[in-house]
Amino acid sequence: MALTEAQVQQLNVQFKGIPPQEIISWAVKHAKVPVVTTNFRPYEVAILHAVSEVRKDIPVVWCDTGYNTPKTYKHAEELTERLNLNIKLYVPKQTTAHRDAVMGIPQIDDPRHAEFTEQVKLEPFKRAMADFQPDVWFTNLRKGQTAHRDSLDILSLSKDGVLKVSPFYHWNDTQLDAYLKKYDLPNEHNYFDPTKVLANRECGLHS
């Protein structure tokens, strides 16, 4: 879906306050190759449920760093089965055990941190995007998560021109809790991202 920045801004004005399902339906209708990405972090179930309700077979790209908590992996299994998700799993080319032996998890000020992030997150993501070449990318980005994400909106264009659609962008945790309660959906807060260290640090995929 080829949109200009001006068109994106105009649509964002129109979409503010519109139910997520309507935004998703609009995007799916105009998309040629839509995908949704997930890491099964807290509240990811909302976007997975909303998108799969509109398009059952949409590819769900999961870039698993290999460092998720046992509870996250169990949560992923539960959601995959319950929502019948079309999971497309992407993992680093090097095993976690191998990396732990030679590098471990570098601290943010360690020169190896950039290489670590590239290995466990960015390379698998780039590989997934190269495989699918989507024109629409559904995410659960929300305002207030990071400074960079505050500069985005419901619709935004990635560096490669892919239309990112974040239908819950203006929702807060209370609203999402109500959504999960309405549809009796599970949530899981025991989540670990080895590349971020700080909760409000950008993960690298959206910057």
Automatic annotation (TrEMBL):
Coiled-coil intervals, chain numbering: none
A Pfam family this chain is assigned to: PAPS_reduct
InterPro entries: PAPS_reduct_dom (IPR002500), Rossmann-like_a/b/a_fold (IPR014729)
Start and end residues of each Phosphoadenosine phosphosulphate reductase domain: 35-187
Involved pathway(s): Sulfur metabolism; hydrogen sulfide biosynthesis; sulfite from sulfate
Family to which the UniProt record says this protein belongs: Belongs to the PAPS reductase family. CysH subfamily.
Protein name (Swiss-Prot/TrEMBL): Phosphoadenosine phosphosulfate reductase
Organism annotation: Maribacter dokdonensis
